[in-house]
Amino acid sequence: MKKTGIAIVIGTKAELIKCMPIMLELQKQKKNYWFIHTGQHPLGKAAEEFGVKRPDFTLSAEPKISTKFWSKLNRNSFTWFIKMIFKVKKTLKRIKPDYVVYHGDTMSTSAAAIGSSKLLNFNKKWKNVHLEAGLRSGSLLEPFPEEISRQISDRFSDILLAVSDRSERNLSKYKKNKKVIKVGNTIVDSAAITYNKSKQRNKKLRHEYALINIHRHENLKNKKRLRKVVAILKSVKIQAIWPIHDNTKRYLEEYGLMKEVEGMRNIMIVPLTEYERFIFMLANCKYLITDGGSIQEESLIFGKPCIILRKRTERQEGLLTGINFLTGLRIGYARKMIDDIEKGGINIKKLVNPYGNKGVSKRIVEYLK
């Protein structure tokens, strides 16, 4: 396989999901690349499931649970972040790529952006590329620390691959000294690839159901906010499935809310599932309740109403489609929207996905080549 000179830095499963179609496209074209794993999430099994190669470099030991940091920003996580910046720098100095690609808004993303930047590599030959650039919520604290991380990543990158018209406008101040290109969001390819595989291995449930996904730092760390989340979930009348994160379960138990959730007979709590199974459940549910980010994009791909349990969202494009509803954690409004959806009061029109159509990943690969 020919070397393309592309190094892809990934730390979390969400980053791997969205970089996966780019990696598959490179493999399809028999173009080699470097996969640099920061170790923030365990990714070995997921890489195998997605059909991409295992990491060429792993910069810290993978955690045995789903994440290293349990939604905590403390001395340990900050120390890890600083170390990761210099480990990325050292690895890139060794391999000397043409492009360094990193995705999204995690600590791994901003560490990769700084570690590959001119700030630490004065005579660097490579271009560093932020995939999914330009998303903004309008508040540095919502979501935290992701909003800060994505702005750091945009600031230290040479090439900014924007996901939408809005994100491209958000990056307009960088156009004089950086390359800003609207390409769409690779999630459209990830979801399509994964759903096509999942249809062969999964069967639809016979009853309608809601799908729940709660894991945001600002909700879990705040007992008052997590109580609101639980109060909103009580208004779900149909069957619901909740694949629960380790850290979500931990905080529900710590705040004494787990028994309250377990008392909701129509909500079935299940272990966190692999992405393929999750996408199949998402594609066939009646609606979604989430505080996540990418799931808002996936709701648009499959045309599913999405109740967003946040005060702000960086995926603002979805709010104009008529099927994404930002609740601001207002219990009354959230309950009304859930009731409207369950009673068929939401008119789901055919929408134009603001994040583009299939083929985003191939366009990105052709550009980098």
Explain what the structure shows.
It is a single chain. The chain is of the alpha/beta class and 369 residues long. It folds into 2 domains: 2-182, Rossmann fold (3-Layer(aba) Sandwich); 193-342, Glycogen Phosphorylase B (Rossmann fold, 3-Layer(aba) Sandwich), CATH 3.40.50. It has 15 helices and 13 strands. It has helices at 13-28, 44-50, 75-95, 107-115, 146-156, 165-170, 187-198, 217-220, 223-233, 246-254, 258-262, 275-284, 294-301, 331-342, 360-368; strands spanning 2-10, 31-37, 57-58, 99-103, 127-133, 159-162, 179-182, 209-213, 239-244, 267-271, 287-290, 306-308, 324-326. The strands form 2 sheets. A 7-stranded parallel β-sheet has the order 3-2-1-4-5-6-7, with helices on both faces. It has a 6-stranded parallel β-sheet with strand order 10-9-8-11-12-13, sandwiched between helices. The two termini are 14 Å apart.
Question: Count of DSSP E strands?
Answer: 13
Q: Can you give the helix content as a percent range? A: 40-55%
Major sheet description: 7 strands, parallel
CATH architecture of the largest domain: 3-Layer(aba) Sandwich
SSE string? EHEHEHEHEHEHEHEHHEHHEHEHEEHH
Compute the average pLDDT.
Answer: 93
Low-confidence stretches: none
Structural class: alpha/beta
Main sheet strand line-up = 3-2-1-4-5-6-7
Beta-strand proportion: 15-25%
CATH superfamily of the largest domain, by name, is Glycogen Phosphorylase B
CATH topology of the largest domain: Rossmann fold
Q: Give the radius of gyration.
A: 20 Å
**Overall form:** globular
Top CATH class of the largest domain? Alpha Beta
Distance between the termini: 14 Å
Number of domains: 2
Number of helices: 15
